[in-house]
């Protein structure tokens, strides 16, 4: 009962803090849209090319935009010792990281359900089947949240090499991009199979992310 | 009853705590002193299981706190060197968060009177980012009253406080001790509280 | 079995098997090369270029096997707090990276005369390229932290997360029949490869495994010594 109260309290707090600082999140979406515009300008007038690579561009920009949200995961609460407070109130570090991931998913990934169609519109991609895009994004966004959480917690550990977190995000999300992007152009008989591959990757990450993030947080506290 | 035995802690190949033991029972206050960098904050973090020690054990009421940390945490309030109030929230929001987080039974009236005592009640709806350091510190200390736990672990509680607030803190500590609580705190400042046990942490062990 | 997790037992065990291992590994390498280059037939389609397969395929298998071993040691090291595992991981990572590189380069050299292209972005090649980058990151990750013991643990975590790549590589050949050949050796069905080609393949695999083991043992012993001194 106490644990349940603590979890609700933490979720409430995260919600309040996130929407008080909504400009942080807005800048992530702006980054995405500006990125799309940069792509439009960089290919010159050849907009037909977006029919082929448009989805790939959208996924790439999704990834890069998530790079910006790394700092919001644990760094602030780690710096002012709030994360120790959450732990002493009875929540294990695994639960804390799960809550952070849920809040991140709701505030950063969910709005992309609206922004991605916007991107598709801007790039003038010929898509008949939005369902598949949304499905692949549903699964892929969860995986991206997990990866961002892992690199956010690894970033806590070092002052030396700051780009590590971003590198980790990029390398680990390559399989996700491969499967999500190719889903669009796949014939119907393969779609189910590929979706189950994506689901497999998602469950793998969901299983190990809280454990890894908790381990990194404990390590970071040890050497603060 | 808190018992710490032969604690050994090293970090980055530097021995910070070497063979330190202490015990805290009801109605007792320990004042931990030492030079800067002697390891007082580290020792407090070890006692509250925030840091993992390499050698030694810590017992709460006979049970090793490592085996069941959450049972131990239910009895501890740890006021740390940093202030945990979030700068995007108001005083009230932070306090209600702490109340729900620790499942505290303080009702709104009691909270209002606590804030009044700390002279913070006119700032109840102000964002923390607008407060001064001393006001943030006082807010942090209010956690002691909200959480209502037995063992109080305080790291430099008097930092940034004005004289009346210092008197208030001393009064609160004395009260808690009289009611059967236990307190261990660090401070360079020696408060006027009777019956304190003073422990000096030199660069390796106890005196 | 304690020699797998205990440095002293490991040293004793490796001292015993080192000499025989050196002889065995070089013998099997020479034997394998003789079989691959002389005693095996030409492929009726590819001619003698098929012989690159005898290096390419064992290298690929070893690259995957090495990562698999690193994953097991990472799990053991993090769960049971055995510091010997981190020694094994950092010793074995460059070996895996080398095998992956051999696999990529020989694959490229094989691809040009066969299919007319040095490289193509199909699923299997891409996943192996990712594996190579994973290895590189693992090699450099440990020392990019201010505290090396933290770096080791983070590397172990990274290995575990990166291990998702293994089933992807393994099954990518089944999932896509693009440029790459479908798997020709499987335990469940009878091999679709002629025994005269299977023989050199197996011998080369054994040779690579033994050589990899040899280098790994020497690196681990060196690391144990280094830690004793430092």
What does this structure look like?
Chain A is mostly helical and 224 residues long. Chain A is built from eleven helices and no strands. Chain A has one domain. In chain B, helix 3 runs parallel beside helix 5. In chain B, the strands form two sheets. Chain B has a five-stranded parallel beta sheet with strand order 6-7-8-3-9, sandwiched between helices. Helix content of chain B is 31%, strand content 27%. Chain C is an all-alpha fold and 230 residues long. Chain C has seven helices and no strands. The longest helix of chain C is centred in the last third of the chain and has 35 residues. Chains in contact: A-B, A-C. At the A-C interface, helix 9, helix 10 and helix 11 of A face helix 4, helix 5 and helix 6 of C.
Provide a quick synopsis of the model.
The complex is a heterotrimer of chains A (224), B (207) and C (230). Chain A is 82% helix and 0% strand. Chain A has 224 residues and is mainly α.
Q: Helical proportion of chain C?
A: over 70%
How much strand of chain C?
A: under 5%
Largest interface: chains, residues each:
A-C, 29 and 26 residues
- The helix-and-strand class of chain C reads mainly alpha
Uncertain regions spanning at least 5 consecutive residues of chain A:
none
Shape of chain A: globular
* Gyration radius of chain C, in Å: 19 Å
* Number of strand elements of chain C: 0
Radius of gyration of CA atoms of chain A, rounded to a whole number: 19 Å
Low-confidence stretches of chain C: 185-191
Note the main attributes of this structure:
heterotrimer, B: 207 residues, alpha/beta, five-stranded parallel sheet, four-stranded antiparallel sheet, 6 helices, 9 strands, 31% helix, 27% strand, C: 230 residues, mainly alpha, 7 helices, 75% helix
Draw up the topology in text:
The complex is a heterotrimer of chains A (224), B (207) and C (230).
Chain A lengths: L1 H19 L1 H21 L7 H18 L2 H10 L2 H7 L4 H17 L2 H12 L6 H26 L8 H9 L1 H9 L5 H35 L2
Helix pairs in contact in A: 1-6, 2-3, 2-7, 3-7, 4-8, 6-8, 6-11, 8-9, 8-10, 8-11
Chain B lengths: L1 E10 L2 E11 L3 E7 L5 H8 L7 E6 L2 E2 L4 H5 L2 E4 L11 H11 L6 H10 L15 H15 L3 E5 L7 H16 L3 E5 L9 E6 L6
Parallel strand pairs in B: 3-8, 3-9, 6-7, 7-8
Antiparallel strand pairs in B: 1-2, 1-4, 4-5
Helix pairs in contact in B: 3-5
Chain C lengths: L6 H33 L13 H28 L3 H32 L7 H19 L6 H15 L2 H11 L19 H35 L1
